[in-house]
Design brief:
There is one protein chain. 36% of the residues lie in helices and 17% in strands. By secondary structure, the chain is of the alpha/beta class. Helix 6 (125-146) runs parallel beside helix 11 (250-265). The radius of gyration is 20 Å and the shape is globular.
Length: 279
Amino acid sequence: MWRDAVGTVHARAGDSARIVSLVPSITELICDLGLTGQLVGRTGFCVHPRLALKRIPKLGGTKDVNLAKLRALAPSHVVLNIDENERPTAVALAQFVPHLIVTHPLGPLDNPPLYRLIGGIFGREQAAEALCANFQRACEALAQAARDWPRQRVLYLIWKDPWMTVARDTYISRTLALAGWDTVPATATARYPALTLDEITALQADLVLLSSEPYRFRARHVAALRALPAMREKTALLIDGEMTSWYGSRAIEGMDYLRRLRRKLSGQDAADNGFGQRC
């Protein structure tokens, strides 16, 4: 038996289970666990693995799910996330879906339990344990490398007009902390604070990272920030947002990515490894 984020206890599902995932990163995890053949629906933001998902019907976005289309697929299980999906959606789904699996990873260390939850319910324990081992390797390698570098204050931007960043009580911030990057501001009243340009310059961050999602920052945005007199001496660059914000199996790649990025920025790797190119 497996308990999800809201305390619901789930029994093992049979091979005939029909799965809908409304969480992009967990859709990827489901496929990496070898369950693509049982996946019958996804959101339009579920894009990895691209080739495997081409045949899986899209059901709208994470917050505007097409319930009629979903119902027609007759799923036995729907996977949800507390932050990414709306509560009214879950209430509506409960009227006709036998099993709702609710997830809520709050930091990277919540990934192994997530692997075991999904893998256990759908009979993929061995694949889940393999992911856990890979996660542990990547996590330990990042933590070990981070001890060799000074901690830095990092401004991580996720939106423009208004400029927005992440509070420390977020999955993104906790992921960056593993790499020795402490997000600023240190305290905030919102999880995703809005900032003026004056507030950005006043934060005195050592590094500014502009994410590829949810807002797709471009090189011109980096140039605009660097043009500010108070920012001319700062390092600012694009970063692949999937590597910091996606949990599930993508988190393993994300920790390796952050380790390589920190190594490059520390001057230990003079070669251009293409960081920022995906953004």
